[in-house]
Amino acid sequence: MEVRPFGLWPSPLAPGDLAAATRLRDLAWDSDGRTLVWLEGRGPQGILVCQPHDEAPRDLNTTLSIRAQVGYGGGDFAVAHGHAYFVEYSGRLYRQALASGPARPITPEFGSAASPTPSPDGRHLVYVHSDEGRDSLAVVDTEGRHWPQRLVTGADFYMQPAWHPKGDRLAWIEWDHPQMPWDGTRLVLAQLARSRDGLPSLRDKTTLAGDIDTVVAQPHFSPNGRHLVYASDQRGHSNIWLRDLESGETRCLSEDAHEVAGPAWIQGLRAFSFSADSRTLYFIRSENSQRRAHSLNLQTATITPILALAGYSHIEQVAAAPRGKGLACIAASSAIPARIVSCIANKSKIRARSSGESLAPADLSAPDPVSWVAPDSTTVYGLYYPPASSRFSGRGRPPLIVMIHGGPTTQVETGFEAKNQYFATRGWAVLDIDYRGSTGHGRKYMKALRGNWGILDVEDAVGGAQHLSDTGLADPTRIVIMGGSAGGYTVLRALTVQPGFFRAGVCLYGISNLFTLAADTHKFEAYYLDSLLGPLPEAGDLYRERSPIYSADQLRDPIAIFQGSEDKVVPPSQAQEIVASLRRRNIPHEYHLYEGEGHGWRKPETIQSFYTSCEAFLRQHVLFA
Question: What would the CATH number be for the domain defined by 2-15+361-623?
Fold first, then answer.
């Protein structure tokens, strides 16, 4: 191997490769069990792709862009009885035949829709609707002949509507402020009746599970109509629960410490699916930062790994075919970018790839789980990506990038993390941290950040970096902290309370002023800070203490700030306040404002610019400093 300085290795992964990648977001079977439809994100546009059995896939839409925008999005489309139902970027619902013909609207253009859910007979569509701060479950006929009606109101938020196979009952998830959907939700089951105009109406409803301190999620009826399964963390971890609709008996199907359902940041998440004969439940659960697929025999209670998917360490959106034994999902690993995969028995078939997959596994970094002990004796978790190349090696210890995920209630996982691979293949070490407050490690671990945001996340970022330095896996003089959104907040907070520990910081759409965040953010997160810090005005002193803008004069390490001009979650003013302070004091910094981008990058030119600019910044202020 040729010896070159760490961080300066020529990499087979170019910025253009990341910009050209397709985002695979969801999939669904048609009622025939032979036609698979999936959603691809190509730049800023969402495209539905349809593949009938053994035929070449084809795009269903070219001019319309499919993207639901209730909260953070998700729940973009559904498929049933030869038709796709999807949410166009304007928030309007459309119907399109899979065989041929154009899409046509079935709802008026007002508010935003999500999670279109066709009734078993194909006549009606229930969906989540949000308009001027008021959320509901609405219903419309699938032909769009009638004006849509509100079916369920009263809660602040709705998610994951599910029809009973007979069409006479509906289940859904709801919750109210100040809870977030990972704090406490309710599972509701309702009886339906027919109104005079033919649309279903609500007859009565019952709360089956959940409360303000218990999270329930993803209700799913068995095809034979006897059972309702859902996820609940009532025992401390997100397990699968089954309710017998005939006897009313409820029991836990997965009594272990593996998390099944992740935090519901978006609509349409799906961690389990019944086989067509109702005898088997296919599900995904977290194991050591991996999301593996399993099958559960409901008669014997036997849990078995799905061998056809054993080569993938990250599975999403599992969906069983309505007929036969087919199963489909989004599958990836640290060395395999996301794919649409279907399988029957022990055989799998690749339906679509998110990239050209031209990189050899030897040129990619294989992440290793690491852990260390925090000052309060809690074990903290992360994934360590060592520098990787089949052609180059370095001398001494590599520079380290500490990656801070957003949320802060999300988790690191072993899918194909392009950002981590981009830097690891150039000779950087990367530590992806599940700081206290992350999900995937039980409810107690997630709740540890309550009241401690800006304290424990910073403590764990420093602790993880120190652990790798102490074990010889990183150069203690060349450590960078990088993160976006809530992770960007941790970047700013770390650089203000621990100046000099990190050589530089990279902040993507990060939060600098907690007061303005509480005042300006969208409805979904309007009271999120109540749990992370406390309600205003009582916690005003804490907001000031933890807001990086009020200690910006402590910033002295070089920092690059990246921001979208159309970001409605963390507006550009958050970045501009920090930049103004840096300019006044001549602190080395860069500020990149991307026009037309929101909370994250979608345009290929933005993605390419970000990686190019970020790498140049790190070379100047870390590698060559």
Answer: 3.40.50.1820
